[in-house]
């Protein structure tokens, strides 16, 4: 596989790979894995936020009581 990078980004990646004692390919693979994992988590958070914004039980006294009991002994 071949990819194109701007010279400045390529040079920075090359220098960091040397500093870390890894290959450029390993550095780029690790960076891509981290990027994909981060964005995957963002998508999950967005979906959960969308679900709870439209499926809220706010205002239901029984639900509010149960929720408050679940976390009353937790330290945040």
Short description:
By secondary structure, the protein is mainly alpha-helical. The protein has a domain of 35 residues. The protein contains three helices and no strands.
Question: What does this molecule look like?
Answer:
It is a single chain. This protein is an all-alpha fold and 76 residues long. It has a domain at 19-53. It is 74% helix and 0% strand. The chain contains three helices and no strands. The protein has helices at residues 7-20, 24-54, 61-71. The mean pLDDT is 85.
Key attributes of the depicted protein:
about 80 residues; mainly alpha; about 75% helix
| SSE order, one letter for each helix or strand | HHH
Residue runs with pLDDT of under 50 for 5 or more positions: none
Distance between the termini: 47 Å
Largest sheet: none
Proportion of strand residues: under 5%
The SS-based structural class is mainly alpha
Shape: elongated
Task: Bin the helical content.
Answer: over 70%
Number of distinct beta strands: 0
Mean pLDDT: 85
Rg calc: 23 Å
Number of helices: 3
């Amino acid at each position: 596989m071949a990819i194109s990078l701007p010279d400045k980004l390529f040079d920075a990646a090359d220098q960091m790979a040397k500093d870390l004692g890894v290959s450029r390919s390993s550095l780029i693979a690790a960076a891509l894995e981290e990027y994909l994992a981060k964005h995957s988590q963002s998508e999950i958070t967005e979906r959960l936020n969308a679900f709870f914004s439209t499926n809220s039980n706010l205002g239901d006294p029984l639900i509010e009581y149960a929720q408050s009991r679940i976390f009353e002994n937790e330290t945040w």
